[in-house]
Amino acid sequence: MLSKQWGRRDNQAMTLPNAASAEPLLQLDHLSRRRAGRPAVQDLSLTLSSGQVLGLLGVNGAGKSTTLSMIAGALRPDRGGIKLNGIDFLEHPELARRLIGWLPERAPLWPELTVSEHLDAHGQLRGLRGAALKQSRTAIIERLELQPLARRLAGVLSQGQRQRLGLACALLHRPALLVLDEPANALDPVQVATLRTLIREQAAVGTAVILSTHLLLEVTAVCDRVAILHEGTLRHDGPVHSDDHAALERSFFEIAMTGSTDAARAA
Amino acid sequence: MSAAFVSPIAVTRLEWRRLLVRPLAWVLAALTLAWLAWNFTLLLGGFLAGQIQRAGAPDGPGFTDLVAVPLLGQLAQLAFLVVPLLTMSMVAGERRNGTLPLLFAAGVPASRIVLGKYLAVLGWLLLWLALTLAMPLALMHATHLDWGKLAGATLGLALMLATLGALGVACSTFASHAAIAAAAALIIALALWSVNLGAQMAGLNGGAINWLAMSTHLQPMLRGLVSTTDVVWFVLMIVLLLALATRRLGAERERG
């Protein structure tokens, strides 16, 4: 049944393999990973349902990017499991191809390719072909206002333009889970507002979003939930209220400065 | 087509596109083909000048021996430099750009990444060989070609280019910088070519050391002698090098 889903080349809305309504879309189960000889992520467990937007907060080196790389399938965990809609993602890494869209930190690109060629390459890597690819490319170029840049080489784009292209690549195949690592980096205020709208739109159509950021305001603006990582461990996981910025700030600083979770519990 | 075949083709397309827009590939193709064309005219001039002397010896060397095969021999010499330059940034460059995780995240296994990149460079190399071969073939109606000998030499050259391509991809997979990958591929290729030089100087023409050398397996083919042992040697080398590259890339995915 899985292979049927992977072999699809049409551009219809995503239907998840073996969809079981009770299962969360994403399930991280005691995930651990060492990097450069030290534990980068330790015993991390989280769940995320379709349509939810989770903000991942933490100071530099807290383990956010490592966590997101593991979820995106770019890095294998040392221990623990990742399930996508109840299916072991580590045993079926091909699931990432169709189900996950990933914008890594600093949006790495192939400098020799144009914006349009980038989108084609990403689409082909994710199994899109022919008319479906063309349709998706046109739609995402229009949505992210990339028309003036379509023929420009990625190597000469500004950092903000690179971010937009990276975002377009992540969204091209209409993923069920969108993983964004500091997507607002280098974007101007107008582009940040567009990004927020885009995230809300994605959530509204059932896409789950994980958003790693340093900006607390970003979390209160678009996220339903927030998870705070410190030294590779999950110190706080709870809902976010848009009028609750001060409490979130208190929790974040308490955890970041002392590693304590008392304030977070109070929040 | 099943999903298993999608990824290597997608990687090949991506790599091929990157190869075609990179000035290095065009510059290498233009310069080497110009050099080979110049040498072809020199070889042809020499062949025409010596035609009267050779008229008395009907079994003497012909156009294939004096023009076509020496031209392919020059292509083989150029390949030692061209292939490392062409392959050096295939994986090392991706690593520097930070784009390698994009391929991992697309669910493409290490074996298919390596295979996809290898097929792209192999396509370029075979096109290069075909364009070189077009020079002597352009005269096929004006002279007598020894088709068997030419086919043997072409097969040998194609296998040699395929082996050097696999070596280049493997070196690029292991090296952190493209320049290191190019240097390593050049040195290993030269070592592989001349590993039996000492043994040959000592008058030893058999044994494992001679079997290991690439020259032992290419030279009979350039003379038109194709043996299964020689073909198997090239195939074994290609498989071994691609397996090493796959293993290294797989370990990198695990290690991060």
Spans of chain A of 5+ residues with little confidence (pLDDT < 50)? 1-15
Could you give the count of β-strands of chain A? Answer: 10
Largest pleated sheet of chain B: none
Spans of chain B of at least 5 consecutive residues whose pLDDT stays below 50 are 1-5
Number of helices of chain A: 10
Number of helices of chain B: 13
- The overall pLDDT average of chain A reads 85
Name the helicity range of chain A. 25-40%
Radius of gyration of chain A: 18 Å
Return the average pLDDT of chain B rounded to an integer. Answer: 91
Radius of gyration of chain B: 20 Å
What percent of residues of chain A are in strands? 15-25%
Order of helices and strands of chain B: HHHHHHHHHHHHH
Beta content of chain B: under 5%
What profile does the largest beta sheet of chain A have?
A: 6 strands, mixed
Overall description:
The complex is a heterodimer of chains A (267) and B (256). Helix content of chain A is 37%, strand content 23%. Chain A is α/β, with parallel strands linked by helices and 267 residues long. Chain A has a 6-stranded mixed β-sheet, sandwiched between helices. In chain A, strands 2-1-4-5 form a 4-stranded antiparallel β-sheet, covered by helices on one side. In chain A, strand 4 (79-84) and strand 5 form a beta hairpin. The longest helix of chain A is centred in the C-terminal third of the chain and has 16 residues, at 189-204. Mean pLDDT of chain A is 85; it is low at 1-15. In chain B, helix 7 packs antiparallel against helix 13 (228-255), helix 8 (147-174) runs antiparallel to helix 12 (214-222) and helix 12 packs across helix 13 (228-255). Chain B starts with 5 loop residues before the first helix and ends with a helix. Helices cover 80% and strands 0% of the residues of chain B. The A-B interface holds A 3, 6-7, 33, 35, 66, 69, 72-76, 93-97, 100, 102, 104, 106, 108-113, 117, 121-122, 124-127 and B 1-3, 6-7, 10-11, 13-14, 17-18, 21-22, 97-99, 101-109, 253-254, 256.
